[in-house]
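Sample pair:
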Amino acid sequence: MANVRVLVVDDSAAMRALFCDILDNAKGVTVCGTAKNADDAREQLDKLKPDVLTLDVEMPGKSGMEFLEEVMETRPMPVIMLSSITQAGTGTARRALELGAVHCFPKPLHTSREEFDATVRQLGDIVLKAASGELKPGGEDAEGGEGGGAKYRSDGRIVALACGSAGIESARQVLAAYDANCPPTIVLFDADPAAVENAVRAMRHSLPCQLGDAVDGVSLEPGKVWLAHDPTRHVVVEAGEPPRLRLVERDPVNGCRPSADLLFGSLARSGLPALGGLLTGSGNDGVRGIAILAETKGKIFVQRPADYAPRERYDAVRAQGLELADLRQEAIPEWILEQTNAAG
């Protein structure tokens, strides 16, 4: 019986090489070609006619999610999403399955021999099942089992996150975990707006929730995420039915605009149920505000920085002696969803 032929699509040359190595070591599987973007993949599909397509979520030009939609409309075939943001149960994974992918598989974080061998077995088995029809579009297997995560229903608690450049990836991981009924969320960035837009570009096409730049007067409701990174205006929360996000033109607070201290402080004064978190970043913006939020019984956390990341915010928060969750990057999305889940 002929091997299953796979086309690997990923904008990273290193990841293409890694997955080619993995799949070529899997029994019954052969990599017939690679592509670095949607345009390249389109040509390879016509030329090579593979049995299975593996597809990255985030690519320059047309994103993986957009290309997945195109493939399902023009040439339906088994597609496996390979990405660091498609762990089982995340909003991004569920969105990919809704669009017609048969499975979502996370990119390995490490490449030890043990993990490599395990990935060969796991991904090889998934590819064979996809080619044989055992995995169906939407994530259902032949017995009718369905992919997806635990039930989530927002309790209405407002989530406010603040991060610097070093925390952008953490914020992106949180958004990737969100579903259509995610908690009402504000993400404030103390970073170059172009870097922020680049980091979340693919998210705009992959998340089932509403994602947009913060504008004055928008309602803070489940299913909506607002990104605040305009260096000319602050963002604050205004109580009401529903509560709203307001943009404020005033001087920087402690040298920052938008200011996390101002955002957290306004959330504390609103009296609304809230969760606040400081992701990795330089400086002390947000430390005073998170302490004020803690005084009003808001749930708070701080990201424990990696060895190479700046520690100013983390050390300043820990010095306050606050009762808060101290979380590594990989634990943050699940913790936020657990704390805001009314269905749990």
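Residues 113-132 form the longest helix (20 residues).
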